[in-house]
């Protein structure tokens, strides 16, 4: 195995001024948790990088795990050498030959970065010195500073010089934990898991909230949401809690007491009220959901206006302006699409009226809601009956549906 280190570069957190140290510490902790399954790795935190000593571990699976971590801009397998120009030249030649072996690549450029200011060669000189050495010691290879086949990155640090010829894209965004916590309304469809992923990309921890209405919705529908949450743990930096709300009683009352055209509006208002109470119990400062403007009756501007009134918490809607195909592309990339399309319906689908109001009036919604006696007691009963499932990447603390049947 050629490479002995990985160089992990930060994304936009490097621009965060006084918060930078906090952001870097959060990222460092997430990386340590994510990589704990690998033996013998040594993680070092430099000023503007993380450097991981592989100690014989193949770099490919480690890179794959790092690509799921928000806050990372890129990862490069690297060779470490001493801060000596002769050693740097020799090591750069090894790396370049490996990158071009058995390929049709024929051009390169050197990108030097001298963070160690006591090193006698500056960045521009480093480009020239290393580039000249590589040209003299190779055949049929030329320099292309604009569009090279291989970029030889030479980074001089106080811990040594790291040389890389290959770079893998990271997840970007901000490290999990720097943006507080939000409750994610997780239906089981395509949109809400993508919303959860994008919310986490901004550094926000999430806890899922799913409304379950047995016997109208099956255990398989619930298991689908458990599996979606499990998939999202890849990006969470740890565990995700899923709160399963018993919603049958409230839905039946809504069906009996509310005009059919307004039943979806009232149901969404009650869901928000319950989610807000769960946010208060779990120290969350916002609610996230997969609403997409104009996609269904409850997601028109008028519907959102009539529904949002019941909470003062910010409502994050990361997919609100996306086309359905854009959302599907992300869901396929993050591994939730095949789970989301399993044919098990959630409570919103089961109780969907034939002609839901697309432009409900807030005043009417408030008046119709008053038809439900003891609504606050019903909401509190649902909150008290919540089942909380804790999921962690690679395993669940709860028995899965397959184990039950």
TrEMBL record:
<dbReference type="InterPro" id="IPR003720">
    <property type="entry name" value="tRNA_STrfase"/>
</dbReference>
<keyword id="KW-0547">Nucleotide-binding</keyword>
<comment type="function">
    <text>Catalyzes the ATP-dependent transfer of a sulfur to tRNA to produce 4-thiouridine in position 8 of tRNAs, which functions as a near-UV photosensor. Also catalyzes the transfer of sulfur to the sulfur carrier protein ThiS, forming ThiS-thiocarboxylate. This is a step in the synthesis of thiazole, in the thiamine biosynthesis pathway. The sulfur is donated as persulfide by IscS.</text>
</comment>
<dbReference type="InterPro" id="IPR054173">
    <property type="entry name" value="ThiI_fer"/>
</dbReference>
<feature type="binding site">
    <location>
        <position position="299"/>
    </location>
    <ligand>
        <name>ATP</name>
    </ligand>
</feature>
<keyword id="KW-0820">tRNA-binding</keyword>
<dbReference type="InterPro" id="IPR020536">
    <property type="entry name" value="ThiI_AANH"/>
</dbReference>
<feature type="binding site">
    <location>
        <position position="290"/>
    </location>
    <ligand>
        <name>ATP</name>
    </ligand>
</feature>
<feature type="binding site">
    <location>
        <begin position="210"/>
        <end position="211"/>
    </location>
    <ligand>
        <name>ATP</name>
    </ligand>
</feature>
<feature type="binding site">
    <location>
        <position position="268"/>
    </location>
    <ligand>
        <name>ATP</name>
    </ligand>
</feature>
<dbReference type="InterPro" id="IPR050102">
    <property type="entry name" value="tRNA_sulfurtransferase_ThiI"/>
</dbReference>
<keyword id="KW-0784">Thiamine biosynthesis</keyword>
<keyword id="KW-0175">Coiled coil</keyword>
<keyword id="KW-0963">Cytoplasm</keyword>
<feature type="domain" description="THUMP">
    <location>
        <begin position="60"/>
        <end position="167"/>
    </location>
</feature>
<dbReference type="Pfam" id="PF22025">
    <property type="entry name" value="ThiI_fer"/>
</dbReference>
<dbReference type="InterPro" id="IPR014729">
    <property type="entry name" value="Rossmann-like_a/b/a_fold"/>
</dbReference>
<protein>
    <recommendedName>
        <fullName>Probable tRNA sulfurtransferase</fullName>
        <ecNumber>2.8.1.4</ecNumber>
    </recommendedName>
</protein>
<dbReference type="InterPro" id="IPR004114">
    <property type="entry name" value="THUMP_dom"/>
</dbReference>
<dbReference type="Pfam" id="PF02926">
    <property type="entry name" value="THUMP"/>
</dbReference>
<feature type="binding site">
    <location>
        <begin position="185"/>
        <end position="186"/>
    </location>
    <ligand>
        <name>ATP</name>
    </ligand>
</feature>
<feature type="coiled-coil region">
    <location>
        <begin position="365"/>
        <end position="392"/>
    </location>
</feature>
<comment type="pathway">
    <text>Cofactor biosynthesis; thiamine diphosphate biosynthesis.</text>
</comment>
<comment type="similarity">
    <text>Belongs to the ThiI family.</text>
</comment>
<keyword id="KW-0808">Transferase</keyword>
<dbReference type="InterPro" id="IPR049962">
    <property type="entry name" value="THUMP_ThiI"/>
</dbReference>
<dbReference type="InterPro" id="IPR049961">
    <property type="entry name" value="ThiI_N"/>
</dbReference>
<keyword id="KW-0067">ATP-binding</keyword>
<keyword id="KW-0694">RNA-binding</keyword>
<dbReference type="Pfam" id="PF02568">
    <property type="entry name" value="ThiI"/>
</dbReference>
């Amino acid at each position: 195995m050629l490479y002995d280190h990985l160089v992990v570069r930060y994304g936009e957190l490097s621009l965060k001024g006084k918060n930078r140290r906090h952001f870097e510490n959060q990222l460092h902790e997430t990386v340590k948790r994510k990589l704990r399954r690998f033996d013998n790795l040594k993680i070092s935190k430099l000023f503007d990088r993380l450097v991981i000593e592989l100690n014989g571990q193949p770099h490919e699976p480690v890179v794959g795990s790092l690509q799921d971590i928000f806050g990372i801009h890129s990862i490069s397998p690297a060779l470490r050498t001493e801060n000596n120009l002769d050693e740097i030249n020799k090591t750069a030649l090894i790396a370049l030959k490996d990158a071009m072996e058995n390929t049709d690549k024929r051009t390169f450029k050197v990108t030097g970065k001298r963070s160690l200011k006591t090193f006698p060669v500056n960045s521009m000189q480093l480009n020239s010195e290393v580039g000249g050495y590589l040209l003299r010691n190779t055949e049929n290879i030329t320099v292309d500073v604009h569009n090279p086949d291989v970029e030889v990155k030479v980074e001089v640090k106080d811990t040594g010089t790291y040389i890389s010829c290959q770079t893998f894209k990271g997840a970007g965004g901000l490290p999990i934990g720097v943006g507080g916590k939000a409750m994610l309304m997780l239906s089981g469809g395509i949109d809400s898991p993508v919303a959860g992923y994008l919310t986490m990309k901004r550094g926000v921890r999430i806890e899922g909230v799913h409304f379950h209405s047995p016997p109208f919705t099956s255990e398989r529908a619930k298991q689908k949401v458990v599996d979606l949450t499990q998939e999202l743990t890849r990006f969470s930096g740890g565990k995700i809690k899923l709160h399963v709300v018993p919603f049958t009683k409230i839905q039946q009352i809504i069906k009996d007491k509310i005009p059919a055209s307004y039943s979806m509006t009232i149901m969404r208002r009650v869901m928000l009220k319950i989610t807000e109470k769960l946010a208060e119990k779990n120290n969350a400062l916002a609610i996230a959901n997969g609403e997409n403007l104009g996609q269904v009756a409850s997601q028109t501007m008028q519907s959102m206006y009539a529904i949002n009134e019941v909470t003062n918490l910010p409502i994050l809607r990361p997919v609100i302006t996306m086309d359905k195909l854009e959302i599907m592309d992300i869901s396929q990339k993050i591994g939730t699409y095949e789970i989301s399309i399993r044919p098990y319906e959630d409570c919103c689908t089961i109780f969907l009226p034939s002609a839901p109001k697309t432009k409900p009036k807030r005043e009417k919604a408030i008046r119709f809601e008053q038809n439900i006696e003891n609504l606050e007691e019903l909401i509190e009963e649902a909150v008290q009956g919540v089942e909380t499932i804790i999921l962690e990447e690679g395993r669940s603390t709860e028995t899965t549906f397959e184990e039950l049947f």
